[in-house]
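Students often ask why inverse folding is considered easier than folding. One informal answer: many sequences map to the same fold, so there is more than one right answer. In these notes we will look at a single instance of the problem. The structure comes first.
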C-alpha cells in the first residue's frame, strides 16, 4: 500500500532494543509510539543495520487539539528522531514481533538496498500494531 505522511512524526531518541520497545508498546497506555530506522542491504544474505530509534508517550491534549484542527504537532526540543513527511510503501501488521523476525517480515520488500522505518504503535486499549514505512 502507498502512504503519504503529510507531517513528520517526531520522537525522543532512545537506545532501547527493539524487543524492549515492543514489550513496552504492548503494555503501555494507548498513544505510546516507538520507531526505528534500519538500513537494508541485500547481498548474498539480507543484512539489517539499525541506524536510530525513538519513542514518545502519546500527544498532550493541546497537541491533540492542534491535530484535530488539521495542524501538525510541533516537535518538542528533545524529539530529534524523525520519520520525515513523504510517500512510503506501507505495511501494517496487527501484531508485534521480535527483532529476530524482522528480516523474514521485510524480505518481500528487500529487492534492493534501502531503508525502512518500523513503527510500534499502541492504537487503543485493545490493539498494538507494527508498521513498516519504506521510503519511495
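Output (designed amino acids):
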Amino acid at each position: 500500500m502507498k502512504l503519504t505522511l503529510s507531517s513528520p512524526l517526531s520522537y525522543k531518541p532512545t537506545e532501547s532494543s527493539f524487543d524492549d520497545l515492543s514489550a513496552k508498546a504492548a503494555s503501555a497506555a494507548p498513544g505510546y509510539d516507538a520507531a526505528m530506522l534500519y538500513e537494508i542491504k541485500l547481498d548474498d544474505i539480507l543484512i539489517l543495520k539499525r541506524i536510530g530509534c525513538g519513542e514518545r508517550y502519546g500527544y498532550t491534549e493541546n497537541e491533540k487539539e492542534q491535530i484535530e484542527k488539521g495542524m501538525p504537532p510541533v516537535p518538542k526540543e528533545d524529539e530529534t528522531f524523525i520519520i520525515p513527511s513523504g510517500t512510503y510503501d506501507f505495511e501494517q501488521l496487527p501484531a508485534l514481533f521480535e527483532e529476530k523476525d524482522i528480516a523474514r517480515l521485510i524480505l518481500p520488500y528487500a529487492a534492493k538496498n534501502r531503508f525502512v522505518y518500523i513503527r510500534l504503535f499502541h492504537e487503543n486499549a485493545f490493539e498494538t500494531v507494527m508498521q513498516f514505512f519504506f521510503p519511495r
